[in-house]
């Protein structure tokens, strides 16, 4: 899976791929390979999504992501800001899975960065109306966690910050909570939005 560590790097595959995508201007030739791989991942994930019967919608119309966030990037995520996330964003239907990833990321950085739980809201009308279903969130049902499902948002997906709860002590036990809303269709959004410095 994408969570497996690559030998010689000590890092997970998804982490390396996202780093290349985030820093595309500094990566030169390697970005061409990452673009091909990204397109392949997206094509495989999107296959069959046009069939209404295959739609699986998250409870409460939201999914969860657990990460860390360097303190200098926290002000970027202010309420009302609309931005593009220049990387794949894996999210879980279960908050408990996001908690695991937040703890893992916080431990890996020795607590230098703030732990964050992202609550990603999708349009609730998408449950019954295919036109309002998020077009760039791909359902992944085969994950490292048995019975787990996730939405994988493609690179440069658009989000709007809905609410921010900053913790006075942002460890994995008491993380910052950031609510963001996923756009229904990236193609309908401005190409000149800010790029998130971290996700």
Let me know the average pLDDT. Answer: 83
Shape: globular
Unreliable segments of 5+ consecutive residues? none
Strand content: 25-35%
Order of helices and strands: HHHEEEHEEEEEE
What's the helical proportion of residues?
Answer: 10-25%
Query: What Rg, in angstroms, do the CA atoms define?
Result: 16 Å
Strand order of the largest sheet: 1-4-8-7-2-9
Primary descriptors:
single chain; 3-stranded antiparallel sheet; alpha+beta; 9 strands; 199 residues; globular
Describe this structure in words.
By secondary structure, this protein is α+β, with helices and mostly antiparallel strands. Helices cover 23% and strands 25% of the residues. The chain has helices spanning 13-22, 24-27, 29-46, 95-108, and strands at 62-69, 82-85, 89-92, 114-121, 137-140, 150-153, 157-165, 176-182, 194-195. The protein has a six-stranded mixed sheet. It starts with 12 loop residues before the first helix and ends with a strand.
List the helices and strands and how they pair.
Layout: H1 13-22, H2 24-27, H3 29-46, E1 62-69, E2 82-85, E3 89-92, H4 95-108, E4 114-121, E5 137-140, E6 150-153, E7 157-165, E8 176-182, E9 194-195
Parallel strand pairs: 2-9, 4-8
Antiparallel strand pairs: 1-4, 2-7, 3-6, 5-6, 7-8
Brief characterization of the structure:
With 199 residues, this protein is an alpha+beta fold. The chain has 4 helices and 9 strands.
